[in-house]
Inverse folding.
């Protein structure tokens, strides 16, 4: 039996009330979950339901739609910093220990600014004061993650969230754990087909179930253990095809319960490697 707790995201490409999702996540065998977040999200309600079910509320994924503005002059950057702070505050208020944050959005972005670091340092101080960790995720724009992880490493809240699928496409299979494994706080485990065209796009980031893509799961688990990670293995998956793709067609007929049951079986296989 694996010693790892197993967690999963709750959306999965379905439209279903959160209370029903969490009940099915629990029934499938998962120990916990993470949720997406938006301003006004009923986190208190979700946390209460999790407590009733005995589920770990592992993390909250902060919005990332305008995170590029953090690095730029102007009021939009300050406004989005406030959004991230509000998300962290929700984590603190409802005993969710971790907020997942993207450093950047945009494949054409390669020049992180000192202004962006100043703003992210304010976010780190805000999180430090509330005992919330920030899991900065590997995405496109590796320069931005590198600047945060290097310049803000002294903050207790500054940690790394390892997305295996992003590593395979956005990071061209570069070993992100070799760079940031010593700061690892959480995982987003998922599979994909790697880089499928001449240009990397978000369409390659398919978030397939483990073993349905080309990921080396034995190698992933070996790298995880090399850094002695003891936290939950958290999976980020979806039933939904990206535009113009048919990678998820095998899942099309599954309802939410079937999908999370299949996901749990794959998670157990990964954890046993």
């Amino acid at each position: 039996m694996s010693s790892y707790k197993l967690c999963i995201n709750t959306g999965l490409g379905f439209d279903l009330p959160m209370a029903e999702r969490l009940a099915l996540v629990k029934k499938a065998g998962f120990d916990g979950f993470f949720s997406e977040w938006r301003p006004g999200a009923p986190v208190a309600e979700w946390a209460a339901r999790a407590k009733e079910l005995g589920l770990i509320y592992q993390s909250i994924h902060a919005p990332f739609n305008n995170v590029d503005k953090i690095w730029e002059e102007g009021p939009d950057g300050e406004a989005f910093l406030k959004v991230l702070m509000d998300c962290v505050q929700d984590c603190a208020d409802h005993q969710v220990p971790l907020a997942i944050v993207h450093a950047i959005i945009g494949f054409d972005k390669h020049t992180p600014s000192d202004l962006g670091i100043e703003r992210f340092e304010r976010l780190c101080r805000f999180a430090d004061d509330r005992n919330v960790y920030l899991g900065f995720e590997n995405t496109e724009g590796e320069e931005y993650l590198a600047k945060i992880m290097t310049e803000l490493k002294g903050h207790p809240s500054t940690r790394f969230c390892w997305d295996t699928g992003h590593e395979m496409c956005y990071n061209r299979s570069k070993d992100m754990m070799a760079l940031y494994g010593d700061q690892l706080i959480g995982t987003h485990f998922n599979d994909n087909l790697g880089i499928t065209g001449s240009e990397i796009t978000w369409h390659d980031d398919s978030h397939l179930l483990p073993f349905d893509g080309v990921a080396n799961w034995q190698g992933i688990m070996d790298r995880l253990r090399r850094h002695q990670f003891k936290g939950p293995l958290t999976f980020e998956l979806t039933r939904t095809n990206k535009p113009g793709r048919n990678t998820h067609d095998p899942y099309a007929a599954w309802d939410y319960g079937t999908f999370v049951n299949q996901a749990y079986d794959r998670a157990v296989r990964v954890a046993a490697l």
